[in-house]
Amino acid sequence: MPETFATLQDLETRYPAELLTLAADEATGIRDDARIEAVLRDVTVEARAILLARYGRQDLDRLDDDARDVLRVYAMAMALYRVALSFSRSSERLEKGYADAVKALQAIAAGKGALGLITDDANDPPPPGSDGANNGVVLVESAERLFTRQRMRGL
After folding, report:
1. Cβ-count burial of 26 within 10 angstroms (0-12 exposed, 13-18 middle, 19+ buried)?
2. Exposed end of the chain (fewer CB within 10 Å): N or C?
């Protein structure tokens, strides 16, 4: 399985107090890192499943640093909620963070955003929804219009 979008270290760095509060074992009071890491794997699987609507598996393995940073933020929000849920410590704020992250991933999958990909070769196609220099705008060339207002006035 590919690496997770967020790691235990990411959560410790960003949310040290919340992680201790949300993930303390019910019996010992010690943080349950194994359960947190399982949640991080689950969140990655969920995020990948959403993104597969637009990106291939190989694309998701070639994400650039900016794309990984974006997915890390979403994965952390999703993981905090799932960790809290697994310890029966959920809150509306965490649930909203989870729902917002899922909506953002769904928007990317629907083409309302994009993830950057590392290209190994100049022959690689641009990322889905991108045409390179035109910032996602499709340009169409066609013949001059036959029926314009000016031409139709004589009829």
Report:
1. exposed
2. C
The residue ranges of every structural domain in the chain are 1-155
pTM for this predicted structure: 0.74
β-bridge mates for residue 117, sequence order = 63
Rg (CA), the chain: 22
Task: Check if the beta carbon of residue 88 is closer than 8 Å to that of residue 80.
Answer: no
Quickly list DSSP for 7-54: -HHHHHHH-HHHHHHHSB-TTT-SB-HHHHHHHHHHHHHHHHHHHTTT
**Cα–Cα dist 138/29, whole Å:** 56
Tokens of 139: 């340009």
Query: Is the CB of residue 59 less than 8 Å from the CB of residue 113?
Result: no
pLDDT digits (tens, 9 = 90+) for 32-57: 999 999 999 999 999 999 999 999 99
Alpha carbon distance 93, 88 (integer Å) = 14
